[in-house]
Design a protein that fits this description.
Layout (H helix, E strand, L loop, with lengths): L3 H16 L8 E5 L4 H5 L2 E7 L17 E7 L2 E7 L10 H4 L1 H9 L3 E10 L9 E9 L27 H14 L3 E8 L8 H9 L4 E3 L3 H9 L3 E11 L10 H27 L1
Parallel strand pairs: 1-4, 1-5, 5-9, 6-7, 7-8
Antiparallel strand pairs: 2-3, 3-4, 5-8, 6-9
Helix pairs in contact: 1-4, 5-8
């Protein structure tokens, strides 16, 4: 049985430990996905806190996730940035996966920007392009809200008719247009992983209406919306998942594709953060 009281205490203890390391109090939180390190380099960090130095924080086990919390400014705007997230396939439960998002909420974050790497199933998408999430499908058979509700954080049955903030989506599209960055808008489906999908699974997920597929993001979005944060999420299309022309792909190739898209995503997110903080 999920111990909500112990979980809440752990979250609050982690938040206090972070407050003790910085004088900043950002309202914007960033979650940086696979291979997206360039954005972290643009942050003028006041504090760099390894996850193991934050009480109760889980540890990243994925090689492309450094496992650090950055506290500083991006485009002159105070931000928290998670350099490394957590996944169900690492063996964590859903409540642990969203632990950092809960900490953000307790710290006063009201806007969460998320990036991830995803496989493109929409036939007009190409490797290295960006997709703005307009909606999602949770196919992970897990939910961070299962168990006793912590009423101070959010209501028992939060509405999810619009998980991604429409005003933030419009802002992202405006900034992408100004920068000449191609930005799709589509549906993300989240699976457990860690294996990639079969041809039949790609056909099924595409038939459901999904444009890209990944192994993260949805639990974090659910927790953020539960705490009434505004959410914006962007996927980097790292491979083309077309069943009739499917090619094998390695993690190294996925990370390399994410790396090539880094400059575009860095420019876009920096512009978005600047506009939010203006």
């Amino acid at each position: 049985m999920f111990d909500a009281l112990a979980y809440r205490r752990s979250v609050e203890t982690a938040a206090e430990a972070i407050r003790a390391r910085t004088g900043l109090a950002p309202r914007i939180g960033l979650i940086l996905g696979t291979g997206l390190g360039e954005l972290a380099e643009k942050i003028e960090a006041e504090a760099i806190i390894p996850y193991e130095e934050i009480p109760g924080f889980p540890l990243s086990t994925v090689e492309s996730h450094p496992g650090r919390l950055l506290v500083g400014t991006l485009s002159g705007v105070p931000v928290y940035a998670l350099q490394g997230r957590f996944h169900l396939y690492e063996g964590y439960d859903a409540q642990t996966v969203v632990f950092p998002v809960r900490v953000f909420g307790v710290l006063g974050v009201d806007t969460l920007l998320i990036s991830n790497a995803a496989g493109g199933m929409n036939p007009v998408y190409r490797k290295g392009e960006l997709m703005l999430l307009s909606d999602h499908i949770n196919f992970q058979n897990a939910n961070p809200l299962i168990g006793p509700n912590i009423d101070d954080w959010g209501e028992r049955f939060p509405d999810m008719s619009a998980p991604y903030d429409e005003a933030l989506q419009q802002l992202a599209e405006e900034k992408a247009l100004e920068a000449g960055i191609k930005l799709h808008r589509g549906v993300y489906v989240s699976v457990t992983g860690p294996n990639l999908e079969t041809r039949a699974e790609y056909r099924m997920l595409r038939a459901w209406g999904a444009d890209v597929v990944g192994m993260s993001t949805v639990p974090e979005v659910i927790a953020a919306r539960h705490m009434d944060m505004r959410v914006l999420a962007i996927s980097v299309v790292t491979d083309e998942c077309f069943p009739d022309a499917l090619e094998a792909v390695s993690l190294a190739e996925i990370i390399a594709a994410a790396g090539k898209a880094e400059p575009l995503l860095t420019r876009l997110v920096s512009a978005i953060v600047s506009a939010i903080g203006a």
